[in-house]
Design goal:
This protein folds into 6 domains: 123 residues, Nucleotidyltransferase, domain 5, CATH 3.30.420.40; 120 residues, Rossmann fold; 103 residues, no CATH class; 65 residues, no CATH class; 51 residues, no CATH class; 78 residues, Histidine-containing Protein, Chain: A. It starts with a strand and ends with a strand. It is α+β, with helices and mostly antiparallel strands and 711 residues long. The relative contact order is 0.08. It contains 21 helices and 39 strands. Helix content is 34%, strand content 32%. Helix 1 packs across helix 7 and helix 9 crosses helix 16.
């Protein structure tokens, strides 16, 4: 039997990367890189790279069980203003009509400097809705240049029929159309309309690309459905991309951290994807990526995407010199300046060179340092050169350069500054790392990560340039992800189908929770997941009255963890001891359930040298040795499913804080089978019991569950 494989393709601005991964072992079998085909369309490059990989590796179409690609096209379209004009049909009636008219009139959205998403607007009283009225409004918008119609009505999340009526009329007039309810089910008409407008503006271009790419993949005779990367780290099928192209925005940023999570043993970490010009930084907490609402330009949307912070610090970042001192690093890179890196050329290229200061772009200050060779060619001083010279880049690393070349170039700079080349490299590296350190500290504080436990994880070609010196400076553990240069492409190949529904619900009932769970399963199956693989997490945000259902699933029956190598109990105890900062003998296993193991350490701390404070610290690891939860002063309970009412209810009550005003629940996590259930957002015991019962309804009465509670 031939090997079954997964193919991941990452379409970047400069290169299109692809990997072939064994579907059973997750081993990389092949990788390839070609220039992105902008002129002929990215689909041409996609089919070229697929065909080449299959031919080179003797793969048959039936060997491919999963194929997906991530694309920067939606992001680039917004940055470059390459979007369609949108016609908005706003609707409302009665007392809400005036506010609905104002809130659905979005105007022109500034995407970047001098780049706008243009929209036109008309308003119809919902009571006067008819085919003639809508057709007249749609034709008027079309005559004014609209290529896409957005239907947006007050309270359409409760009844979307009027929006759907307008969408149908627009389609009969040969226009693309979408509605606010298709993008978000949250109240907030203005933001819902704005999100739908951004989505609508992307539809024509993404339809063209999606159709071409899907057709191209079919020509390879691959039967597996083409999947596209989403901005939250999951994938969806092409049909869903046609309806909701906005979900592919920022998907390239999500792919790298998705790959790191699949390949690395990360519990709490800061992930860096470092290229030549910039580094994208995101947070992993309890083994999950952190998500937030995205902005388009300065405009908030209801698009949930990876929380990523981007800085102009990377391998190719140029060194700035002013008044005889190194004053900054970046934001311009050698790529922008169209210069070669000093550490990727031969020593002969640099011998006898002189230092020059240049402007990478005409509006830039003349402060960027290059070495002009005797032949007149200019080579950039870079952060990669500094990191190589100071020994942060291991031999054989993707960013490893010629040490002698780096030494010559940096000594030319050092001579001009009256310091040694190594001193100059150290100054430049410290400036860059200080910028990154400030941002990492902000993320650690914002997400309440434990500095003694968090790890810095590097991906991308310049991972070692950034992560190794930053880890040393911050005294935080650091490591380079396996196959770091291809980590985004790996993330695409290993991604799961993902869907999310959010609704505005005050104090959700059992019925509300069951309904959103059914709806998100229906949605994820439409997006390409097999229903038997689907896992659903329910979250309640009481402050914003948001009920959220997040579903993940696979396109075929697979479960990565079943193929993983399990650690022994001694190995897991050692990992837990390290996580809790205690000696191995201080940790003991309390119990196990499914893939989960609960370890406890009783820790004594001395106050003023003699008063002893005792506390319980716990760590929950999975069978692979990933610490998925680590807490001090936590309580735990291991109970059988049949004893939920008699044992768990009492446990929750004992850890609830009661006051005259209200009862404050503890934060609760529950572990069973393959599932880690986060119940920290629950506001009432009833909500918590309801979700726990729904999630565990298929368990046998005698199966055990681990519960953790903390304040």
């Amino acid at each position: 039997m031939s090997t079954k494989v997964r193919i991941g393709i990452d379409v970047g601005g400069t290169f299109t990367d692809a990997v072939v991964i064994d579907n059973n072992t997750y081993e990389i079998l092949a990788e390839k890189k070609i220039p992105t085909t902008h002129d002929e369309g990215v689909a041409v490059g996609v089919v070229q790279i697929i065909s080449s990989l299959m031919e080179d590796n003797n793969l048959l179409p039936e060997d491919v069980v999963f194929i997906a690609h991530g694309t920067t096209q939606a992001t680039n379209a917004l940055l470059e203003g390459d979007v369609a004009k949108v016609g908005i049909v706003g609707m409302g009636t009665g007392l809400d009509a005036r506010s609905a008219k104002n809130e659905t009139e979005i105007g022109n959205l500034e995407l970047a400097e001098s780049k706008y998403l243009k929209s036109d607007h008309t308003f119809i009283d919902s009571k006067e809705l008819s085919e003639d009225v809508v057709n007249r409004a749609v034709r008027e918008l079309k005559d004014n240049g609209a290529e896409v119609i957005v239907a947006s009505e007050a309270y359409s999340v409760d009844d979307p029929s009027n929006e759907q009526f307008v969408i149908d009329c627009a389609s009969k007039n040969d226009l693309y159309a979408t509605g606010g309810h298709e993008i978000s089910q949250l109240y907030g008409l203005k933001m819902r309309t704005r999100t739908a407008v951004v989505n609508g503006s992307l539809i024509p271009k993404m339809m063209e690309t999606a159709n071409m790419t899907e057709r191209a993949v079919k020509e390879t005779k691959i039967k597996s459905e083409l999947m596209i990367m989403r901005c939250d780290g999951g994938v969806m099928n092409v049909e869903e991309v046609r309806k909701r192209p906005i979900l592919t925005m920022l998907s390239g940023l999500a792919a790298g951290v998705a790959g790191a999570l699949m390949y690395e043993k990360i519990s709490d970490g800061i992930f860096f994807e470092a290229g030549g010009t910039s580094v994208d930084i995101s947070v992993i907490k309890n083994g999950r990526v952190m998500i937030k609402y995205a902005q388009v330009g300065q405009h908030k949307t209801y698009l949930q995407s990876l929380d990523v912070r981007t800085m102009g610090i990377a391998g190719g970042s140029m060194i700035r010199v002013k008044n005889g001192k190194i004053v900054d690093v970046g934001p311009r890179s050698a790529h922008i300046a169209k210069k070669e890196y000093e550490c990727f050329v031969t020593p002969e290229d640099l011998q006898g060179g002189t230092l020059e200061l240049v402007r990478p772009l005409k509006e830039d200050p003349c402060e960027y340092a290059v070495v002009r060779s005797q032949s007149g060619k200019e080579y950039s001083l870079t952060l990669a050169g500094a990191a190589n010279l100071l020994g942060y880049v291991p031999e054989g690393d993707y960013a490893s350069g010629d040490l002698e070349s780096a030494k010559i170039a940096w000594e030319i700079l050092g001579d001009c500054l009256h310091i040694s080349g190594r001193e100059a490299a150290r100054i430049a590296l410290d400036i860059a790392m200080s910028k990154l350190e400030n941002l990492v500290n902000e993320l650690i504080d914002e997400y309440e990560l434990d500095r003694s436990f968090v790890a810095l994880v590097g991906g991308g070609g310049s991972a070692a340039v950034v992560v190794n010196p930053l880890g040393e400076k911050m005294d935080i553990k650091s490591k380079i992800a396996k196959n770091a240069p291809y980590i985004s492409t790996i993330g695409v190949a290993l991604a799961m189908v993902r869907e999310q529904i959010e609704r505005t619900v005050v104090n959700p009932t059992d019925e509300d929770i069951k309904k959103i769970r059914v709806d998100v399963i229906e949605q994820i199956v439409r997006s390409g997941a097999k229903e038997e693989t689907v896992d659903v997490a329910i979250e309640i945000d009481a402050q914003k009255n948001i009920l959220r259902a997040i579903a993940t699933g696979a396109t075929e029956l697979r479960q990565k963890d079943l193929n993983a190598v399990s650690k022994s109990k001694d190995e897991l105890a050692n990992i837990s001891a390290q996580a809790l900062g205690v000696k191995d003998e201080a940790v003991h296993i309390v119990g196990s359930s499914g893939r989960w193991n609960l370890f406890e350490a009783k820790i004594e701390r001395k106050i003023l040298g003699f008063i002893k404070l005792k506390s319980n610290s716990i760590a929950v690891t999975d069978r692979e040795g990933v610490v998925r939860l680590r807490k001090d002063k936590a309580e735990y309970l291991i109970f059988k499913k049949k004893n939920r009412v008699t044992e768990f209810n009492q446990f929750l009550d004992e850890n609830t804080t009661y006051s005259d005003a209200n009862a404050t629940l503890p934060k609760v996590f529950v572990f069973y089978r393959e599932k880690m259930l986060d119940l920290t957002g629950m506001q009432t015991a009833g909500q918590l019991y309801s979700i726990l019962d729904i999630e565990t309804e298929n368990m046998e009465p005698e199966e055990e569950i681990i519960a953790i509670a903390y304040k």
